Amino acid sequence: MDMIVAPPTWVFLWAVLLGAALGVCYDVFRILRIAIPSGRILVFFEDLLFFLIVAAATFEFYQLTTDGIVRGYVLIGELLGFALYYFTIGALVFRAATAIIHLIQRIIGWLVKVFLWPFRKLFAPLIRKLVRQMKKPAARLKKLCKKRKNSLQKKGNLLYNHYKTKKAPPANRNEGKPKWRKRRSKRKKGKKTSSSRSH
After folding, report:
1. Which residue, among 63, 65, 84, has the nearest Cα to 20 in the 3D structure?
2. pLDDT tens figures, 27-44
3. Domain spans, the chain
4. Residue 155 to residue 39: CA distance in whole angstroms
5. Three-state DSSP class for 153?
6. In degrees rounded to 5, what are phi and psi of residue 158?
């Protein structure tokens, strides 16, 4: 039968079948998400890919059946076929697929445990000994780090600080000067007093 000259009833039925096929495609994506855990970014790209498949399939269907003319009953047929599959056969297929996937995951996990059991028995005591031996040097390193931190700190300044605290100015002007400067200042004062008396 030539799809191009088909009456609208046949086109509608073919659209229902197309919608059911798109439902199967959507179930494939859902089952893959359960089998392979995916994040939000991967889910977004999967949804985008599904919508691109739907758009391409609908466009090709219009080209084959209505000569590229958009008909509303075609979209209604696709939605009806998708809903019929999704809520009847699709629900059963999805439940069966999830049960099978969980069973396979449990079997694989059990096989991995059985395979790794002898290695655990052999290497577990060695790992425990290594952990115990590494505790003492780790504690020593912590103590050394604390001591170094305390040695870097001083009362007034820090060695890694560029800014030094300003010293308080001396109470007397001659306090910070050497002794010979003090003597000179006393001699100058004596000369000044003698000159004032002579006048």
Report:
1. 84
2. 999 998 888 877 888 889
3. 8-115
4. 54
5. strand
6. -115, 140
Instruction: Find the helix or strand (DSSP H, E) in which 152 lies.
Output: helix 89-152
Alpha-carbon gap, residue 66 to 72, rounded angstroms = 11
Which pLDDT score, from 0 to 100, does residue 111 have? 87
What does the pLDDT look like over 10-30, one tens digit per residue? 889 999 999 999 999 999 999
| 3-state SS assignment for residue 7 | coil
**Angstrom distances, CA of residue 93 to CA of 24, 28, 49, 85:** 9, 10, 22, 10
CA 67 to chain centre: 49
Chain centroid offset of residue 92 CA = 36
Distance CA 196, CA 199 (A): 5
- The residue count for the chain: 199
- Would you give the DSSP letter of residue 70? -
Whole-structure pTM value: 0.55
Whole-number pLDDT of residue 99? 92
